[in-house]
Amino acid sequence: MAGEARAAGPHVVDLGPGGGRAGGRIVATGTPEQIAAHPDSVTGRYLTRAPARP
User: Fold this and answer.
1) pTM for this structure?
2) d(Cα 50, Cα 6) in Å, to the nearest integer?
3) Where is the segment annotated Disordered (predicted)?
4) What is the mean pLDDT of each run of 10 residues along the chain (54 residues)?
């Protein structure tokens, strides 16, 4: 789903830190838990939150 971070896979590659010219480098790699604990990962911040339910 666009705009949502999901912890569905065994390995995550977080690219960023932003989009376009602000992105394109590897910020963090590892399990969803490792990404969530990485201080520079914007994606990790979303992996630590429970998904919103309508």
Assistant:
1) 0.67
2) 10
3) 1-54
4) 57 88 91 92 83 60
